[in-house]
Design goal:
Largest sheet: 4 strands, mixed
Order of helices and strands: EHHEEEHHHHHHHHHH
Distance between the termini: 44 Å
Strand order of the largest sheet: 1-2-3-4
Number of helices: 12
Number of domains: 2
Structural class: alpha+beta
Strand content: 5-15%
Number of strands: 4
Length: 251
């Protein structure tokens, strides 16, 4: 379940496994991120996922945290009888890991993240997803142009898809054989094309694309042949050169 954005722009998700967290508990957890929020204030493109589970016998809580920063993903976890305690321990561990990361930053990865943020600002119309060149391509049903306009997101999305698939070891083992990462990337773009006008203007484009990965993967696993054919057709469509009209103009 997504939580509101912090001052740093950190995107946070809190997932639960075999347990439930009431809304007030989630709110306290969000408020408890102040130290981490301050630590990553100047780090672009940060993404944080907490996974909370409860042991069926001891009733102790296990909190895992995965913080994605430019060039690295910091992972930690902790057990405690109370979820608040396990959560705060994770936050403090992440703060220390961030401090170490900042002492030895990956400058090239930070530059890539900053370029991606600039793409979000420049490509997407801030007022309405239907406005601007991307929205115009969607309204015209022009998938080839849509993909061309978002071409600079492809390498980033492929890496995000690769990391996402790693959450499912059985699925990850199929990559390169019965499942192609390129088909998943194309399925995300196809879903983005179909749903672009419903995108909230308060959500960054990269964040919105990221949110389409899991549903696209599950669709791919349910109907691999059909989705694979759709992806192949989409790739053929966008790779076919524009034909020239009678006056030499591309149509």
């Amino acid at each position: 379940m997504p939580t509101p954005a912090l001052q740093s722009g950190l995107h946070v998700k809190i997932e639960t496994v075999d347990c439930a967290l009431p809304a007030d508990e989630r709110a306290r957890m969000q408020a408890g991120l102040a130290l981490l929020d301050e630590a990553i204030r100047d780090v672009p493109g940060a993404d944080l996922v907490f996974r909370v589970s409860q042991h069926p016998h001891s009733q102790a809580y296990h909190v895992e945290a995965s913080l994605t920063l430019p060039g690295v993903t910091l992972v930690t976890g902790d057990w405690a009888p109370y979820v608040d305690l396990a959560f705060q321990r994770c936050v403090h561990k992440l703060v220390r890991k961030v401090q170490t990361y900042q002492e030895h930053p990956d400058r090239h990865a930070q530059e890539r993240a900053e370029r991606l943020a600039a793409l979000d600002r420049n490509i997407v119309a801030p007022e309405d997803p239907a406005d601007g060149p991307v929205g115009e391509a969607v309204r015209a049903g022009d998938y080839r142009r849509f993909r061309s306009l978002l071409a600079n997101y492809e390498d980033w999305l492929r890496k995000r898809c690769g990391r996402w698939v790693q959450r499912y070891p059985a699925v990850n083992a199929r990559i390169g054989t019965s499942l192609r990462l390129g088909d998943l990337v194309e399925e995300v773009f196809l879903n983005a094309f179909e749903n672009y006008t419903q995108r909230s203007t308060t959500v960054r484009l990269s964040e919105w694309l990221d949110g389409l990965i899991d549903g696209s993967l599950k669709a791919l696993l349910r109907h691999p042949d059909e989705v694979g054919e759709n992806g192949s057709l989409a790739r053929t469509l966008r790779e076919t050169p524009l034909e020239e009209g009678p006056e030499g103009k591309k149509e």
